[in-house]
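Pasting as-is:
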Amino acid sequence: MSVQEMLDQMFHEAEGSSGPYDIQKEMIQKDYLIHGELREWTGDFQTVYSPVCEMSGDQAKRKVIGAYPLLTEKEAMEVLESSLKAYDHGCGIWPTMTVEERIHCVENFLYEMLEVKPTVVQWIMWEIGKTLGDANKEFDRTVEYIRDTIGALKDLDRRSSRFVTEQGIIAQIRRAPFGVVLCMGPFNYPLNETFTTLIPALIMGNVVIFKPPKLGVLLHYPLLKAFQKSFPAGVVNTVYGRGTKVAGPIVQSGKIDCLAFIGTSKAADILKHQHPKPHRLRCILGLEAKNPAIVLEDADMELAVNEILLGTLSFNGQRCTALKILFVHQDIIEEFNARLCDRIKELKIGLPWEAGVQITPLPEENKPAYLTELIKDAESHGAQVINPFGGETRETFFYPAVLYPVNERMKVYHEEQFGPVIPIVPFDEIDVPMQYVIDSNYGQQVSIFGSDPVIIGTLVDQLVNQVCRVNINSQCQRGPDTFPFNGRKDSAEGTLSVTDALRAFTIRTVVAAKENVPNKEIIKTILRDDLSSFISTDFIL
């Protein structure tokens, strides 16, 4: 059976094939969260199409699965005003709460979140085409991240609960929030990567305006009531619609204090430059990457192929941490290419809920066309698709394509493809991949595959000054979430991890007094009578 026949059959069987994950009716989201109220929207809506297609005769068409509000600048400004009111220049209920009280609210949210797991997982599959296993992993990893964040904050607060005395000055040093945070996540991890900024921003006392990504909106709808029930009014507000209509005006107001954005550098630059006082805007950004793998001549071939298969094609290569270009030593390249192509043939293509499926339809409109354009450009400069069926398409589906040999004249050599196209560059001298890393606009991660400790040690010493994570005989990845996640050059701004995120959304703040009898008595009274949330020696268990 050809790939085209398999795809036709797959889409013919899409209707009703999802069993317990089937959509009984479209999800028409009529509400958005503003100042503790789920307010009904009566204006225009954005239709949501799934990457899962249905067959109409011989035509495959994306299935309509719902709609969400297209708010306007007016509603965006109302959301902003709600957030400003809740923060109240740092005098609001939320920023002046004790750390323990804020933790309790987040724990309540986590409980409510777990109640809707099946629904959220269902919509992750239908909206972005992520497999059932990966959708469950994304949800569970997000839950684990929230729990780890709570634990990390307890540790941080315990360390901050003591006073220090230096040069006759008594002081307590704690972390204080910035204010209003605009939080915008990516479509490929719409729950997890959104919450890796949203939750630490919240728990540290900031208020959050949350705009879901363009793809992956409806999956957040079941969580609105959880936000509503768990946090004071205005602490979490949501905004939906086109970025230029809602996010742009919010930033242009100059009234937000922090931008947490994961997406493209182009979109991030537009948003940042719209703020009238850019030096007052703290930015935490996760942007593009073009992570290379360097496969040395003494690499363990089986290990390298296994890791690179995962690194290039997990979630169809739609990860910022994906391996997006391979440099393979000329002495082993024939064997490497053959093995990689053989392994790709074994991958199961299908719909997200099917057991064992690994390659699924793509959610981005026109993505298959863009990937096809990259292939044609590479072929015009001497590359070939070397795996069977590579690059075959059907509406939203794109079969993984291995391109070889790739060179610097090709777009795919420079552009982040963010999809299942695997460019392979042969090299004889290590200077070739090293120069690529040096010249690249991106500096997130790199993977080295080899066996010689001397060579690997030398490469590590050079590469750590170009990228922020060097992986030895393993694919690039974000986790564990306790590790720093950041990037050099155009790949990131700020550092994220469980602990780093708590620091990213706060600033160290000091309360100090000269060490004399009246000041000591004032501080003792504040502590004894529990008169301040900041000046406190309470120990959170």
